[in-house]
Amino acid sequence: MHMKLQRCILNPLLSPVPQHHWESKYVFNCAVVKKNGLFHMLYRAQGEDMVSRIGYAVSTDGIRFNRLEKPVFTPKSPWELYGVEDPRITEIDGKFYMMYTAYSPMGVRISMASTTDFIRWERHGVIIPDIDNKDAALFPEKINGRYVMFHRIEPDMYLAFSDDLIHWDNFVSIAGPREGYWDNLKIGVGAPPIKLDEGWLVLYHGVENTPRPTYRLGFMLLDLNDPSKVLKRSEEPIFEPEEEWEIFGGVPNVVFSDAMVEHEGNYYIYYGAADNHIALATISKEEVEKWLKER
Ligand code: BMA
Q1: Which of 67, 137, 213, 230 has the most CB atoms in a 10 Å sphere around its CB?
Q2: Which atom of ligand 1 is nearest to the CA of 250?
Q3: Quick one: which of 112, 119, 176 has its CA closest to 147?
Q4: Which interval of the chain is the signal sequence (predicted)?
């Protein structure tokens, strides 16, 4: 069975704002969480200086977003000299944890910040030191008594485990690129996983080694008690660049997602298009269930 996400007809949902110096050039990869009937979006933005900052937008229907004029999260530490990138947000015990990439001349590092209102942030700093690493996302609950998160040491998707969300150990590679496939160069987690009866549903991005790398999306299903076990993985991509504004832009041929939200029988998947715009694609839960049951 071949699944495909459907584009929202109002796409792209958000584009750069020439009058806002911090988001005048590119707006793209975003985290979205739904809480008390509101969709909260935290998105990566770049202006003339090409430094990534994080803006905030809010919506009641998940489609029409109102954004603030100023970013809510900006670089503060030497690790963030070039920017704060690619937020992924997980709610744990009423608090929202944002994993993001800190980028500087020293490399890329996974960092964490937390909030209860998306405006005021507590910074926890770099949480995996000493190694270039990105694409981090937290599981929404402990597994076997420990916190679990995805991360990416090129080219594989990894898990790491922790007792306090700050110190992480036991790095384990769970999946890598597949030769001859659409994800033959490198892969990384998309959104934080969603717990289903069948296992953890994980959105991920796969990069194909084309002259200019192509970024597409797929699903994985991981074992509920041992998420290092991959039970199922998309043979074909579920989404790929097709629209003009996905093929041409800041970085061409990119659909890159950090957010998957359950809404009215569907999964809403927010994505950055060509590192230039923010857009939405959806799929019914029913269709995903069918794929999960297929042997
Ligand atoms: C990845 C990340 C993403 C970006 C993608 C395509 O390495 O940096 O933020 O969307 O490349 O440029």
Answers
A1: 137
A2: 12
A3: 112
A4: none
Is residue 2 over pLDDT 90? no
pLDDT digits over 60-107, tens only? 999 999 999 999 999 999 999 999 999 999 999 999 999 999 999 999
Q: How far is CA 27 from CA 85, 254, 288, in A?
A: 11, 13, 29
- Residue 134 in domain: yes
Domain-embedded: residue 1: no
Please choose, from the candidates 111, 106, 131, the residue with its C-alpha nearest in 3D space to the C-alpha of residue 121: 111
Kindly report the number of other CB atoms within 10 A of residue 290's CB atom: 12
Query: For residue 142, what is the domain's CATH number?
Result: 2.115.10.20
Looking up tokens 């076990």, which residue turns up? 229
Range of the domain at 161: 6-293
- Summary mean pLDDT of the chain: 97
Q: Mean pLDDT, to the nearest integer, of 256-281?
A: 98
- The CA distance from 187 to 99, in Å, is 17
Give the pLDDT score at 295: 73
Q: Round to whole Å and give the CA distance between 37 and 59.
A: 9
For the chain, percent of residues with pLDDT exceeding 70? 100
Is the pTM higher than 0.70? The answer reads: yes
In a domain, residue 186? The reply is yes
CA–centroid distance, residue 33 to ligand 1 (Å): 21
Ligand 1 atom with the smallest distance to the CA of 86 is 9
The finding on whether 29 has its CB within 6 A of some atom of ligand 1 is yes
